[in-house]
Design a protein that fits this description.
Layout lengths: L3 E2 L1 H9 L3 E4 L3 H6 L6 E2 L5 H4 L9 E4 L4 H12 L4 E4 L2 H7 L10 E2 L2
Parallel strand pairs: 1-5, 2-3, 2-4, 3-6, 4-5
Length: about 110
């Protein structure tokens, strides 16, 4: 089972420079995403999840929290300290947090 984090805990981690992986498709992320989120579409997570830095937690986000739970589960099963962000980008935006649009970053 994937571990989840609340929007409040995620906001605090994000403000401190937490690593955010957006598992939506590129067009979804380009339309609006958490600033600094790195793109890693869900279908690519099994093959690419080891690309992220190993020294800190990963906060996985999607539109509503469904895809991010799947991705966080895959990452956690590989020993990665991953958390699905409850409510996803929609809840983030609804709470009045900043949203970036346009160019996206690829996960590293």
């Amino acid at each position: 089972m994937a571990r989840e984090t609340t929007q409040q805990a995620f906001a605090a981690a994000w403000a401190e420079g937490g690593l955010v992986i957006d598992v939506r498709e590129a067009d979804e992320q380009t339309a609006g995403h958490v600033p600094g989120a790195r793109l890693m579409p869900l279908r690519s997570v099994p093959a690419r999840c080891d690309e992220r830095p190993a020294d800190r937690p990963v906060f996985v986000i999607c539109a509503s929290g469904n895809r991010s739970r799947t991705a966080a589960y895959w990452m956690t099963s590989r020993g990665i300290d991953a958390y699905s962000v409850t409510g996803g980008t929609r809840a983030w935006a609804h709470a009045g947090h900043p949203i970036a649009a346009g160019h996206h970053e690829h996960a590293a």
